[in-house]
Design goal:
Blueprint: H1 2-17, H2 19-23, H3 26-46, H4 49-72, H5 78-92, H6 94-98, H7 105-126
Helix pairs in contact: 1-4, 3-4
Length: 128
């Protein structure tokens, strides 16, 4: 999805060259995400599909700016965060990683919850 890469590059340039980004707090972008979620809810309820696409695009932009702001403030490391998210969801969705369809809802929930519990246990062990 080259468009995600292009949008991310635009966000990085926005972070570098836009004074608004530098002057805004992480809460500005956090509230922007909440506002976009409300817009998406409205478009879903009214089945306004062209507007829905616009609002989802706005949400992605807001999330990228929020993440960029958190990194800019030294609160997160994007590379580490993305790696951790990849590992987390790869463990919780083994059938997706393996390329097989899992149609059984109970089995999907079982796999997800078992992996989540293992991850929490491991995290708790590492913080001791």
């Amino acid at each position: 999805m080259k468009h995600i890469d292009h949008l991310f590059q635009l966000q990085q340039r926005n972070q570098q060259y836009n004074g608004w980004f530098k002057d805004s707090s992480e809460f500005y972008y956090f509230h922007g995400i909440l506002d976009e979620m409300e817009e998406i809810r409205k478009e879903l309820m009214h089945q306004k599909l062209p507007e829905l696409e616009d609002e989802v695009g706005d949400l992605i932009w807001c999330v990228m700016n929020f993440v960029g702001k958190l990194e800019d403030r030294g609160m997160i490391d994007i590379e580490r965060m993305m790696n951790n998210a990849h590992l987390k969801f790869s463990e919780r969705l083994p059938y997706v990683v393996e390329g097989r369809f899992e149609g059984d809802k109970e089995e999907r929930s079982r796999l997800w919850n078992e992996a989540k519990n293992r991850q929490k246990f491991k995290k708790n062990q590492n913080t001791k």
